[in-house]
């Protein structure tokens, strides 16, 4: 390490390109942020897209590599030996990297940090969600309930390698990673409840680039930018909006953008309605345009979001939000200050919050301005970079002191 410039090696298994991945986007943004600040960034990546082009035998062997990938340990080890980074930052290791990345760091004597984008450290599915409700069955114990229920892809066979991974590598993760970056206080609390070492958990929220434009008037629609599925609360939002429509509406349409397994049902529900527009999947540029014209953003997730990137994007655009009062969403929205929190899973509560959020134009603008101020204090790239480097330096210092946990 020289003159405050760090050598950082990023480890990430990229998700399939057919599904827009917030995690891929976050990794790319953090990498660019570090490089733009003068730090030297090296990447070690695997791509889930590559599975489709593998031979049948290689594809069949992928589940066997989820708990351990010997080739990755060797290849990453060689890269670490050649570049000697100051710190390794691990993101996603499923399915092609595996926790062998942690072993490679230990072999090389290089400190590792890991961002926990989900709950995969304690839940084979990674989302603490099963059969339409929050599930904590595996929190604080061996993940045998997940195997019994076939939580991953509704298959015990598909869930088996993930279960083996957790059982076989839990000690390796929890002892081999110097610090874990949690993305919210809510996520950290769940992980501590699950038995993760609290002294290794650092809350480091994601950042969002300033869009360069913000809302200056109340807007003309209620906006939902989301993956179109059950866990994101789309059925709940549809039920709440029907309650609003039955009572005369709120004078503006609901605009939904996104794709997912429920898009057919959402499209049929929105068809021939003047108070609903379903736009399908939109580009980031189009989403930004929709955001700055929104009166309020709605995030009705029924699962425990670890963060809620779209909520911070709304803050940056001075748009207030209505969100579920649990998980990372509950952390991000300051109730009655930057937006409103509704009772999770309660359509009537969600409908009431949406009505109140748009009823008073002056209050709506004040909520949006407060949201923008919160963004400027906590979620800008400058704040994100400082937190990232601070975490790296703590890990490097701990390694230099021979600190062991």
Can you tag this structure with a few keywords?
405 residues, alpha/beta, Rossmann fold, 2 domains
Please render the helix and strand layout as text.
Layout: E1 7-14, H1 22-36, E2 40-47, H2 56-65, H3 70-83, E3 87-90, H4 100-108, E4 112-116, E5 129-130, E6 133-134, H5 144-149, H6 156-176, E7 179-182, H7 185-193, E8 201-203, E9 221-225, H8 234-246, E10 254-257, H9 263-270, E11 276-278, H10 284-292, E12 294-299, H11 309-316, E13 321-324, H12 327-332, E14 339-342, H13 347-359, H14 361-378, H15 381-400
Parallel strand pairs: 1-2, 1-3, 3-4, 4-7, 7-8, 9-10, 9-12, 10-11, 12-13, 13-14
Antiparallel strand pairs: 5-6
Helix pairs in contact: 3-4, 8-13, 11-14
Describe the model.
- The protein has helices at residues 22-36, 56-65, 70-83, 100-108, 144-149, 156-176, 185-193, 234-246, 263-270, 284-292, 309-316, 327-332, 347-359, 361-378, 381-400; strands at residues 7-14, 40-47, 87-90, 112-116, 129-130, 133-134, 179-182, 201-203, 221-225, 254-257, 276-278, 294-299, 321-324, 339-342.
- The protein has 405 residues and is α/β, with parallel strands linked by helices.
- It folds into two domains: 7-207 and 381-400, Glycogen Phosphorylase B (Rossmann fold, 3-Layer(aba) Sandwich); 221-378, Glycogen Phosphorylase B (Rossmann fold, 3-Layer(aba) Sandwich).
- A six-stranded parallel sheet has the order 2-1-3-4-7-8, sandwiched between helices. It has a six-stranded parallel sheet with strand order 11-10-9-12-13-14, with helices on both faces.
- Helix 4 links the parallel strand 3 (87-90) and strand 4.
- Helix 3 packs parallel to helix 4 (100-108), helix 8 (234-246) crosses helix 13 (347-359) and helix 11 packs across helix 14.
- It is globular and about 65 Å long.
- It starts with 6 loop residues before the first strand and ends in a 5-residue tail after the last helix.
